[in-house]
């Protein structure tokens, strides 16, 4: 999640969730062994990061995702259950926020043995901060690239060399504009662009929510021509996402991370949204693909825009961070309004289209080329274009 400014009510929600969980959750004593003859094979798994993103999927007319609660060892103590429809075709979990929670929960899921995820579509469905250059609060964005922008060296800007435009420097490099020389492998993930197009077209059939307060904030961005899309009504947009544990605000960091996104992807990605989890989730799903448990070509990253990443003309960066977030309510509602079209589209087209998968025509995977093929960014495949051996072959 990102920019959930109302800390008091967030804490209340978390505490209430925590207190209610043992009461509401089905007391599954040993979920793995009791279910091992009864593996659930979801068509769609919805990945949310905190309670408000999850609750919009409850009490909806389309399906009852609270029909089954399954406690999974290793999930967040705040969110110990996976939730599924009674037939197991649609499931949901809450990772907890930021990179460590996302990676831990997703690892617990894929290695639990409770689910067969080999043909499952993952819909990462959360809120995010948004660039007014590309989209606006309330918009629904679908990413092809996810970039871990804070995986860098950092100098406090007050102590940076005078000729550096930012205090962030890619790891192993000596200036902000030099491609990272020390690569961890999670810097960039590229997703199935053909699947994204299909998801976007499903989402475009939704009528998005908006509010008067969101419209008032948007209007304040109209005076800067570069922010025309920030001042325009919310829409479904294709643009890319950045992951950072640090929730940042302001035009200078925004420009620095725009540049990082462009640098890391060799100019291909268009930065628009920032969040705290996706590269962690994607790294887990990449490793699970190599283990034959998940199909990396079946991942959709949908982020709805809750707050601007930078101030409007005349506002301060701090006011943007600490001020009201009128985009919060519409952005949370739009997770459901747009997301349910994607879930239904996949479910309804299962036999004809989605069960066999959407073959990607672009490179998919990480910066190392772990899944095979040549990344169109970074220094090139470390495997000469082949996939990693052994466990890779059985990914379907
Ligand atoms: C699943 O848990 C939710 C609360 O998280 C509860 O409302 C629902 O009734 C539970 N479902 C079952 C089948 O127990
Ligand atoms: C994070 O994931 C995005 C989207 O999959 C990718 O474009 C980006 O390069 C990744 N960044 C890092 C640092 O892993
Ligand atoms: C947005 O959702 C709120 C809360 O459900 C509702 O009151 C409002 O009418 C909706 N607005 C639009 C434009 O759909
Ligand atoms: C971003 O890149 C542009 C173009 O190379 C450069 O002029 C600007 O100083 C950079 N800004 C930051 C904050 O890195
Ligand atoms: C991406 O840019 C870096 C540095 O500018 C370069 O070394 C690398 O070859 C480029 N990768 C691709 C796939 O074009």
TrEMBL record:
This protein's record includes keyword Transmembrane: no
Keyword field: Signal, Transport
Residues making up the signal peptide according to the UniProt record: 1-25
Pfam family, any one: NUP
Family: Belongs to the NUP family.
Function text: Nucleoside permease that transports adenosine and guanosine.
PANTHER family tied to this protein: PURINE NUCLEOSIDE PERMEASE C285.05-RELATED (PTHR38643:SF1)
Protein name listed in UniProt: Purine nucleoside permease
Species this chain originates from: Gymnopus androsaceus JB14
